[in-house]
Amino acid sequence: MKKIYLFLGCVVSAGLITGCCPNGCFVPHGDVYERSVSPPTSHSDSWEKPGVSVQQAQKDWVACGGKKNGLFSPPYNRKSDGDSAVFFVRENRKLQRCLIGKGYRYTGQCIHDMEKTEPACGAP
Fold it and tell me: I need a labelling partner for 42 at 20 to 30 A (CA). Which of 3, 29, 31, 99 fits?
């Protein structure tokens, strides 16, 4: 069971550094995200291309904007990049289009309506 803490008028979830305050919510990204979330597999594991070595797949992943550890966490500049959620979605779609352009196929799930709007699930 996750614990929820109230800190200076903000609700913060234990285990993952996120929360909502009266003036808005915050979502971790960058190094904070990578330290707080440990997915069972890396994001890059959801992409495949027949005949490609693991080393080449990692190079392609990094060339498209992913991290060497298989995660995706684009660098975010609060002053110039605007809304962090919009920035993340835009950069994630760039990564997807890049991988598709290199001939990779997404092997993850495309069940929910939001997932169906992603290039990996067939959206433009």
Answer: 3
